[in-house]
Amino acid sequence: MTKSAGKLLFDGSDWNFATLSRTYDAIEEIALGELKLDIYPNQMEIISSEQMLDAYSSVGMPLMYQHWSFGKRFVFEDHLYRKGRRGLAYELVINSNPCIVYLMEENTMAMQALVTAHAAFGHNHFFKNNYLFRQWTDASAILSYMEFAKKYIAKCEERHGTAAVEAILDSAHAIMDQGVFRYRRPPRLSSEKERERARERLEYEEQTFNDLWRTLPPSTRDQEEAERDASERKKALNLPEENLLYFLEKTSLILEPWQRELLRIVRVIAQYFYPQRQTKVMNEGCATFVHYTIMNRMFEKDQVSEGTMLEVLQSHANVVFQPGFDDPRYYGMNPYALGFAMMQDIERICTAPTAEDRDWFPDIAGNGNWRDTLLDAWANHRDESFILQYLSPALIRKFRLFLLTDNAGDNFLEVASIHNERGYQAIRAALARSYDIGANQQDIQVVDVDLLGDRQLRLRHNVKDGVQLEETNRDATLRHIRHLWGYDVSLVGVDAETGETLYECSTDGDMM
Amino acid sequence: MPNFIDRRLNPKDKSIGNRQRFLKRAREELKRAVKEQIKSVGIADVGGGQNVSMPTRGVSEPTFQPAGDTGDRERVLPGNKEFSPGDRLRKPQGGGGGKGGAGTGEDEDDFQFSLSQDEVLDLFFEDLELPDMIKLSLKETLTFKPRRAGYAVTGSPTNINVAKTMRNSHGRRIALRRPKQAEIDALAAEIVELEKKPGAEAKERLAMLQAELDWLERRRRRVPFIDTVDIRFNRFEQQPLPNANAVMFCLMDVSASMGEREKDLAKRFFVLLHLFLRRRYERIDIVFIRHTDEAHEVDEETFFYSTQSGGTMVSTALEEMLRVIAARYPANEWNIYAAQASDGDNISGDSERCVSLLSAAMKYCQYYAYVEIIDERESEIFARTDNGTSLWRAYRTVNGEWPNFQMTRIAKPGDIYPVFRKLFAKQSAQHQPRK
Q1: ipTM entry
Q2: Residues in domain SpoVR protein-like N-terminal (chain A) (predicted)?
Q3: CA–CA distance, A184 with B279 (Å, rounded to integer)
Q4: Does B296 reside within a domain?
């Protein structure tokens, strides 16, 4: 053995709490000292593979209310896992304060080190610093909120029956994707006390409800007034409204207070996960870059052995593998691969730029300070803007990216751009667009409802690039909305550019 | 310093509740899937845990999804090898997202998962209308009896094995030279003796003896009479009760009049008998005998799925059964159960012969069940038991003579259980199988 053996943090593949904590401290030193990461305090939890499966099926939250769809996911994952068709993740990390990191019991010590660097520092830093997470989620409140949600839903099931609660949740889940605020900032998660007050008020309203108000004779008015009314009531209801769950929760005439609270819970969870969906590439790229840098630093400092490093590199190589489009393993762009490659590329541009880089990135090329450049990128971008800003021609060549246009009316796909001088801009813009959730998700909004008239809920789908909705799913989802709204729901597909009506459908008459 | 928490000992089955909700939700689909499965697996395999595959129809979660075949899209793909701008490629057939465009969507139609034994049996029992008591007793596995299995160093005080413990203690006392009571007594006596004597010599000796006595006492305290390392407990192991062997004869008419529905009902009937027997016997052989106008012992596959043409002569099956019993299953070593399924057709004049053969067979059989599978429309007509096919009328006479003979007509799955009612009733009264 060489003299460096004395400095090794661990040797062999077995781990125990002493080696875990020794390694954590060494990683922390590099992460905070050299990379200048800024993290929430960590809470590392060791779990078994069964518990990992459990965590999977409840969308990774440590606390989740009960619903059959989670059982379905569990059954599905469990089957794949037992058949050996899919491995389990080595870790799971939750955007909370303290940040909860799950480590799998089966991991070797080398993997535990990798995972600690990846999740406890990479993801954790990203959660704490990225502007989307800072503005839109409240890491310190989420765990207590989930605890409240779980208890509240269990209480509802006790009071109103499982079937009634499930029916509402089913419908709410159906429009979860339409249950987020994309532009307007959501109200902050209120504290337990405030929620308590809100609930008390609802209960008070419930008790003092008087049906007599409904029987007051309507005032007579003429045509003109009716039109003015229409615009007025739209204004009063804050229409158009993109957050369907929010609108239904506040406006639906048939929901009981507890049902509204259920919608609110689903909406809050959807909103909580919304930033994660917008930063998949960056989040994974950041974590992968951090673990790669830290593990290499530890190796340089003789803190880990060559054997450990080989294992880490092998696992790392698997994670950042990007098969070509014609490879049977191809499953879309691998966010780990893209994110990691871009961040490594930024490091290269900062330290060893080529002439091309100086043209494309005059502000960062050769500035020598890749750490601050990356910290800044991690804090202030989401996937779309990050790619648009930092995807370099060198990387486009490396991945040999090309752009296909696929028009519905055409039997052929056309290669629009490839990795050459003329294509870089187009490819970069198109790739960035494909990560823009706001643009890719179906834009469906509530546009009008006459609460005093037929109460039909009018939705409008702004069809972009002619991409319409799949009909079976669309009709089933509309029925779910109708279930929450209580009256007919109609959906009009309007071309976003020409304003031409493409399709119309409604739930006329058919009951759930 | 982070906070490390070991969660491995926390309960694992957080998803059990959700899983059950899902199964409840998918119950109808699952029932259908299990039914299909029962049709295709062997009688003896029903009741194990099973993989079922089911379409996700009943449990779909609709959301607004883009339709793959509309609109204009742009895709950025990696790994270009030969394309230049302007190349046109024919779209891959079979529509949809094409190459990886959809990306995230798991293909969930027709997904598979495993059901536990309990879950399969629950679904299997559902339309058989079994009383709950019976369901419970069928699902119950073997009974256990504690049995001596050596010694253990831990256990409850009531299980201390005194002899073994004392033997250990004795050995240890010898090995560690624990002073015997007699030695101490002798020393003490000598001291008493000396104390009476005057003189310096005696004093000196007394002091020496006193010291020796002290030393012995101390040693005795250090080496206790019984130490915890001596203690042995009787160890018990849960041993399954030994079960005798049973053989189950399945007799079925396979002439053309037995269609899919009849065979399916017959199979459920056989499965149920098998489940019941499995609970009581460790080893069960199943013998399949099918007959038209001649009978053969066949394997299960042939029994249920191959057809044979010919007339119907029930007595041949009974003869075959008697032959097999005589050849392979002596009645003093085997518990013999027989189940016969038929649509009641028989060649004229054969039924009487059946009765005499059956009376001979009943001497060996623990139990004989006969089911006649009839059309649902006929169940009204045959509401009264005395009239019926020739076979039915003939068997009626046997029914009176032998208490362990059961016969009934079934038109739907729910009718099957009553055939076994007597068997189950008997089971609680006199339980021990013959050895």
Answers
A1: 0.78
A2: 14-438
A3: 65
A4: yes
